[in-house]
Amino acid sequence: MDEALQRLLKAESEAERITREADAKREQMLNEARAEAKLAEQRLEERIPEIRASFVDKASRSAEQTLTELRRRYDERHVELRTAAQQHEREAIDAVVAILLNPQQR
Which domain holds residue 43? Predict the structure, then answer.
């Protein structure tokens, strides 16, 4: 019986040792994970200006492309309207000249 009790005490002692080691290992892993997370967070914080600059650059390029397209459309429409105005001006002048040359034709 003494021998069985000794074995049980030894097994309990060994189990407590294993538990302490596992707890220490778990704590170490948690500390390492926290440190890695903090490092990753710091790297992200450091990259925020770069990320923001990249976003602003892309938005700026997109806005510039949109403005270029709008200017092109404006210029095309301006030419169309100018051409139409010149055509109507010629028609109006022809009509006035015709009326002045032949007032009964109205």
Answer: 2-105
